[in-house]
What we know:
The complex is a heterodimer of chains A (323) and B (326).
Chain A lengths: L3 H26 L14 H8 L7 E3 L5 H7 L3 H8 L34 H14 L5 E6 L6 H12 L4 E7 L2 E2 L2 E2 L13 H4 L4 E6 L3 H17 L6 E6 L17 H9 L3 H11 L5 H24 L15
Parallel strand pairs in A: 1-2, 2-3, 3-7, 6-7
Antiparallel strand pairs in A: 4-5
Chain B lengths: L1 E4 H15 L3 E5 L15 H4 L6 E3 L4 H13 L3 E5 L10 H8 L2 H4 L8 E7 L14 H5 L5 E3 L4 H13 L3 E7 L6 E4 L12 E4 L4 E5 L3 H14 L4 E5 L2 E3 L3 H11 L2 E8 L4 H12 L9 E5 L8 H5 L5 H11 L3
Parallel strand pairs in B: 2-3, 2-4, 4-5, 5-7, 6-7, 10-11, 10-13, 13-14
Antiparallel strand pairs in B: 1-8, 6-12, 9-11
Helix pairs in contact in B: 1-7, 3-4, 8-12
Amino acid sequence: MLTREELLRHYETMATIRSFDLEAKRAREAGEILGNVHVYVGEEAIATGVCACLERKDYIESTHRGHGHTIAKGADIRAMMAELYGKAAGCCHGKGGSQHIADFSVGMLGANGIVGGGFGLAVGAALAARFQKTGAVSVVFFGDGASNRGTFHEAANMAAAWHLPVIFVCENNRIACSTPHETGGQQAVMDLSKRAAGYDMASYVVNGNDFFAVYDAMQRLVDRARKGEGKACGFLECKTHRPFGHIVGDAQRYRDPALAKARWEADDCIRNFERRCIASGWLEQADFDAVQTRVAQRIAEAKQFAVESPYPDESVLFADLYD
Amino acid sequence: MSLKTYRQATWDAMKEEMLRDPAVYAMAEDIIGNGGSMGHYIGLGEAVGDPSRVMDAPISETAIVASAVGAALAGMRPVIDLRFSNCLPVCMDELVNQAAKSRYMFGGQGKVHMVVRCPDGILKMQGAHHTDCLEAWFAHVPGLQVVIPSSPAEGKGLLKTAIRNDNPVMFFEHKMLFGMEGEVPDEEYTIPIGKARIARAGSDVSIVTYGIMVSRALTAAAELAREGIDAEVIDLRSLTPWDKETVLASVRRTGRAVVAHEAVRKCGFGAELSAVIAEEAFADLKAPVQRIGAPFVPIPMSPHLEDMCRTLPGDVAAAARRTLGR
């Protein structure tokens, strides 16, 4: 059972991700920032539920849609927002941007512009943890589309063969860029967690729009992984929604955008969390309102910080390339 | 000094670096059963007192490279071995997008200190999937270092530096090197990456090369000496970074240059060398730069066709004579 403080903290994380990405979406649509911006709106319960089970020393590998993972792992949202604007104060000093955001100080080893690029890196981080005897676990987030990359299968096999503490978290939002999961001829299995059986991994399928379902399943997988004995790796499939386009500016010609949004609104993870907490008597509406007010203020501050920060100096073009 | 094979000299380098730094580990396919593709890891785990640091990997080149990147970002110093350079195209994303860019793209938050050992080159009748020299591909990628040793002593010193430095290093080792013998210093030493070596001093023509071609160029130089031609042989040691100053100083002195590699001539690293020499030492050149390498064809298996793709001492000597109008 989570304490009141924990519930409020996890709610604030979800609300922060939502506000951060709605602001990123607005800024991209307004042309205040350019480039590829993939927002995590709708999937907040997954990053939050997963990272709620992790410690600072644990590692996560992210995707092109990485803001939510980064926030949930504990990154500073001011440095993140500055990164979206390409500013020197950004967490990657402006060299990564939205699609390559990272904060190593909290174990977030990077978003990845290559779909399926993070699997093997997560295996390596877990291997390092074993060598270094830190007890850290390594989590890789990926989508339903990325699960079809050979990199998934090589990494899953390697992690399982070596009993490494790697947890594969599949965010199945049922659409790979523009191609639907069920009807797009992407794979024969609809529950992608079935693939875990081929690697002799523990697996769960949960409603990714239910924070508590994600949290409970992840906690079990982390406990196994943390012990570092026997079958350490696991697979968590979270069914979820992607209410907006693949990328900000995506006209979504491939589906009815209004229908996609309506389906999400009926199953929004943040509303689900509020309803569950109120029905159970854990929290009240006033608690949520107070969090939302604080989050709105922090996002506004982060945006102002990002806008007012300077761009990197030309002298740093070659910095951090070689020794 | 002791006479050692390249296989032994680089084994020694691995052992010394693994004993020196607990963050170093080795991973490859068949690294236990066969001791690596050239037998160059036999007994290494036992020699460092911890067999778990020499890891036998599944046949998963992408996961081998990607796991090395992830482990490096988390503080380890992996040395991975891809058996043959023709496995490199299997894991290009991991090398070009992940290993090369992670440090820069994330603003220096992590470093990808790893070494990718790639035995390469024409041995005998192995055919097109086991023989390519692909160093130029990786010299074109910002973020990677490209190191190509030429002898047992060079291999040991350069491998030790590659393991210690903080960059991702592509370490190309010609398969013919592994059985080559040479004098190797008994005392501890390393060789800096980026500083070329004058393998033979000369005054008439500069032969700029690297890797297995250095020994072939030295053979050519001995042949040329009998004809009264005094050739200088420069061992570049590394292509990224490459020692432009040493090359240009030599060419300015001799006024003639031959650039040579076993890789396909077209768009090979020789093109870069040739272009820079032409751009920056044009006024000192007494003849056009001669650029030699393999013909633009996959390496055929049949022995006499295969021989047509080798770049041998005779080819180097002929190119040197051309710069002298002979």
